[in-house]
Amino acid sequence: MSGKWRGRLPWLLMGAVLVVALVIGSQGRSGPMTEAQRVKHIASEIRCPTCRNQSAAESDAAAAKAVRDEIDRRVRAGQSDGEIVAFMVSRYGSDILLKPEGSGVASLVWALPVVAVVVALFGLGVAFRRWRSRPGVDVSAEDRALVERELQREDA
Amino acid sequence: MSDVDLAVSRSRRHTARWAAISLGVVLLLFVAVLATRKSAADKQAESPLLGKQAPSLTGSGLDGSQVSLASMHGKWVVLNFMASWCVPCRDEHPELVKFTQRHQAAADATVLGVIFDDTQPNVRRFFADLGGSWPVVDDPGGHTALDFGVRGPPESFLVDPNGFVVWKGIGQVNADGLDKLLREGKARGA
After folding, report:
1. How far is B105 from chain A (nearest CA, A)?
2. Interface confidence (ipTM) of the complex
3. Min CA distance, A27 vs chain B (Å)?
4. Which residue of chain B has the CA closest to A147?
5. Average pLDDT over every residue of B127-146
6. What are the φ/ψ torsions at residue A90 (nearest 5 degrees)?
7. What residues of chain A score a pLDDT lower than 70?
8. Contact criterion met (CB below 8 Å) for B157 and B82
9. Phi, psi of B128 (to 5 degrees)
10. B114 pairs with which residues across the strands?
């Protein structure tokens, strides 16, 4: 193997691992979830009402247990995930969801970072172009005299 | 001091002055916002239940009897989620006592307590210490709190005589604030 390829091998391996991980990660579940898995999955999207940033699936608080019980009861009653989440929102408001909704004002949470990155990239592009094309700075006689004075002062 | 040092010093003073002015303006705005906030007693919290029929509420009272919100139809009800371990609940309790006393003769309004993450014996002691004789419902699984979207005590709801939720407050309430809400509700024709 040539030295050129040996140098690129780690990068190629890393790329291969990344592609495999993305493919595995993007695959859906192979079979339907059990009721217990559904309860856990829905509870993981609901904020524990009395905690700061923990899901109802993770927290041991009494309110989180009440949320899990309610989800369990509704799953057994045959409600869909959407219906159960909608019930929670109808009681607590949309901030009970750990992930902001993708519609209305809440969608700004998703859109603003993208807009910020695009604006930042555009700004950088404009700045680089301007720096590259900037002509030489005009130095006045007064500036030269000032620098001269300072240099003489340094030497003295 | 050389011209350069003077220029640098002047520039620094200039920046510091603007930083101080900006900070002062931000602080003034902060103080103004805090000073003009409504007190917790009549500050309405957001709730999807506002303007909607209150969820049904039935449970066991402190004396073992069955208590329901529906049985209070025709009266204004202050639904108060409380716990004996909650210090603000202890602080607001005398105000609720005052509120019920004011409305005892007219019998137009009452308080219905809901125990939040606490036990009946603790709440019985709480009432024995601080007074008050309104019905208090136990909520052992926290399902009533969930039905009303309660996150922690004290939280209160004002339910009109037709069973609609007209106000939600997070934190302590006081008798005057509740009476003001009642007057406003009555003026709206609830």
Report:
1. 34
2. 0.72
3. 35
4. B4
5. 95
6. -70, -15
7. 1-4, 27-30, 101-106, 134-136
8. no
9. -65, -35
10. B81, B137
